[in-house]
Amino acid sequence: MYRGEVTEQALYILASLARGECHGYGIARDAEELSDGRVRLTAGTLYGALNRLRDDGLVEPAGERNVQGRRRRYHRLTPAGHAALAEEVERLRSTAVALGARVRSAPATPGLA
Amino acid sequence: MRRRLLALCLLAYPREVRERDGDALRDLALDLAAHNGTVREGLGLIRGGWAERRRLAGRVRRAATVLAVGMGTALAALTWTATAQPTRVEEDRFSCTGDCRAVEAEVAARVRGGWTCDEIRASDSVTWRCTLD
Fold it and tell me: pLDDT tens digits for B12-70?
């Protein structure tokens, strides 16, 4: 079980890599698409986040390849990364269920308990 | 122009990071600048560079702390061993019955040489236990 904190950016990076190996540019674009434009990663942010995820053992390098004349570094999830992503998604799901139930049971008129 | 500006912003990163990942970072920033804008990418690099410097500084600080604690522990262990648990470097025993002059001379020589000798008398013999710390 991963004990560290998964930030929103890290969550989208992990989610992006859940599809398979990917390079930085692909991860940044995918994260933006997945978050509906809310998470826009710059190279600096992405580099730092990937380093932290790699230090935590959630992501590992998957070599370099030439794509359209540019050398791109690929990254992939480790088994611990898959597990951390699944755990975080489950945590968000239960949070959404609990909060959703509260919203549904709240009185329609604000201020009346 | 864009390339030059981003290369300038890359200077915010520590030298070792630039040497290792500088090209990849610059290429990635160039790709994303077409989408995010050069200014945003440049600021992202500067922010990321400072964060990386803080991270490396923290790592050095942690390593120095671990080293200091390790050396302190080793020093304390050595001090404790030297003071609380003195070790006998050498121990000799001399015994004699009857004429003990030769043995007494040897024991006296040892005492002059810094040894500590305890005399143990029995009914028919004398034993000296000499130790050198």
Answer: 999 998 998 888 899 899 989 988 899 999 999 999 999 989 988 888 888 999 999 99
Q: Does B24 contact A28 at a Cβ distance shorter than 8 Å?
A: no
Rounded CA separation A9/A59 (Å): 14
Identity at A9, one-letter amino acid code: Q
Sheet of A59-67, strand order: A22-23, A70-77, A59-67
Residue of chain A with shortest Cα separation from B46: A44
**Which residues have a Cβ under 8 Å from the Cβ of B124 and sit 6 or more positions away?**
B97
Reported ipTM = 0.77
Q: At what angle do helices A24-34 and B15-36 cross, to 10 degrees?
A: 50
Amino acid symbol at B118:
D
Residue A13 and residue A8: Cα distance in Å, rounded? 9
* Inter-chain touch B25–A43, beta carbons under 8 Å: yes
User: In sequence order, what are the residues at sequence separation of 6 or more whose Cβ sits closer than 8 angstroms to the Cβ of residue A52?
Assistant: A10
With an 8 Å Cβ cutoff, the interface of chain B facing chain A consists of 21, 23-25, 27-29, 31-32, 35-36, 40-41, 43-49, 51-52, 55
What is the separation, in whole angstroms, between the first and last Cα of chain A?
40
Q: How far is CA A107 from CA A98, A103, A110, A112, B122, in A?
A: 16, 9, 7, 7, 102
